[in-house]
Amino acid sequence: MISHVSGTVSSAGPTWVVLDNHGVGIKVLCPPATAASARIDQDMSLQTSLVVREDSLTLYGFVEADDRDAFELVQTASGVGPKLAAAIMSVLDSAQLATAIADEDDATLCRVPGIGRKGAAKMILELKDKMAAFASRGPSSGSAVQVTAPWRQQVTEGLIGLGWSAKDAERAVDEVAVLKEADPAMTIGNLMRAALRSLAP
After folding, report:
1. Residue 193: is its pLDDT beyond 80?
2. Which of 19, 108, 112, 135 could be bridged to 7 by S-S, CB 3.0 to 4.6 A?
3. What does the alpha-carbon distance between residue 76 and residue 135 come to, in Å, rounded to a whole number?
4. Is 97:127 a contact under the CB 8 Å cutoff?
5. DSSP class of residue 147?
6. What is the CATH superfamily name and number for domain 151-199?
7. Is 196 left (phi over 0), alpha (psi -120 to 50) or beta?
8. From CA 183, how far away is CA 109, in angstroms rounded?
9. How would DSSP label each residue in 43-57?
10. Can you give the residue ranges of every domain in the chain?
11. Across the chain, what does the average pLDDT equal?
């Protein structure tokens, strides 16, 4: 198992980065906020989970080990595969996910694209005991990288990468702009989560 990867960012997309490690380019799928924080030719380190399938090897990466561990744990719930688990961790960090499950807050879980009421109820039932430890750890102070680059484009690209239209993404960015104005130091990760919440039905 590959538990972490470090290297120089050689390229990045809405939901992935390629890290150059001693001449080997390693593609890592990651939450949009993490991909948005990547800077070409700068070093980056990710906590990773390797998903092995008959026809593929896919590496998922996270800034925090807790988020990586939650990504792996949530897949033990029936009907939750790597893609849905990645979507969950793009909307919620490990502590937020654990709190939602502990509080049986299906509305929060339903903010994740692909999770409905029945799916949320099943996750709560199957993961409530397993996720308890994450809730006690509290939110991760380093779960997102603070950036000063144009945040609107980064959040918009992240939302489009998750499947929303450009129009919806721009509307969500407009709605969270007030948060950025109130707190200029707010991270891309928090802005992304706020934007996703605004898009929830």
Report:
1. yes
2. 19
3. 18
4. no
5. -
6. Ubiquitin-associated (UBA) domain (1.10.8.10)
7. alpha
8. 26
9. EEEEEEEEEEETTEE
10. 4-62, 65-135, 151-199
11. 86
CB 62 within 8 A of CB 99: no
Query: 91: Cβ–Cβ under 8 A, 6 or more apart, which residues?
Result: 111, 112, 193, 196, 197
Report whether CATH 2.40.50.140 matches the domain 4-62.
yes
**Among 89, 59, 62, 56, which residue's Cα sits nearest to residue 74?**
89
pLDDT in tens, 80-100: 999 999 999 999 989 889 999
Confidence of residue 140 (pLDDT cuts 50, 70, 90): very low
Token pair 């702009």: residue:
177
What residue type is assigned to position 181 of the chain?
E
Angle (CA) 176-178-182 rounded to 5° is 125
Give dist(CA 50, CA 147) in Å, integer: 28
Q: Cβ contacts of residue 94 below 8 Å, gap of 6+?
A: 64, 66, 67, 69, 70, 134, 137, 140
Give me the sign of the Cα torsion angle 133, 137, 184, 146.
Answer: negative
Q: Are 28 and 16 in contact (CB under 8 A)?
A: yes
Query: Residue 52 — φ and ψ, nearest 5°?
Result: -105, 125
